[in-house]
């Protein structure tokens, strides 16, 4: 049985594509792609849910590992792509966080909600007045 396993392993390792697919240079980035997928999905959610500290930490983390992926031998371009996507998503989230909390986004959204509530109330009053005038 051990000879059979050795023969299969030798066969896999002799083929360059299969050798790459069976390595940590492939499976590390593939398993890590959950982070950028979640970050890109989060860009569609409300900016009041964004954690500024976590966004900063993930931005630094991705920048560090982008550098690491090019410093190792052989260069790991799949890991670079994973962290490049995550870096872009985290920078987008960081901008949205700053826009919401520090550059007036929260106030602007509150004002827009108040205007909409005022319009709805005006429509209700218009309907009530129309009914009252029509009854006389």
Please specify the SSE layout and strand pairing.
Blueprint: H1 2-14, H2 16-21, H3 24-32, H4 34-42, H5 52-71, H6 77-101, H7 105-135
Describe this structure in words.
The protein is an all-alpha fold and 136 residues long. The protein folds into two domains: 102 residues; 29 residues. Helices cover 83% and strands 0% of the residues. The chain contains seven helices and no strands. Helix 3 runs parallel beside helix 6, helix 4 packs parallel to helix 6 and helix 5 runs antiparallel to helix 6. The chain starts with a helix and ends with a helix. 15% of the residues are buried. Pfam families: MPC.
Beta strands, count = 0
How much of the sequence lies in strands comes to under 5%
Q: Per the principal axes of the C-alpha atoms, what is the gross shape?
A: elongated
Question: In terms of structural class, how would the helical and strand content be classed?
Answer: mainly alpha
Helical coverage, percent range: over 70%
Main sheet record:
none
Oligomer: single chain
Low-confidence stretches: none
What value does the Rg take, in angstroms?
27 Å
Report the span from N to C terminus. 99 Å
**What average pLDDT do the residues reach?**
86
Number of domains: 2
Count of helical stretches: 7
Q: SSE order in H/E notation?
A: HHHHHHH
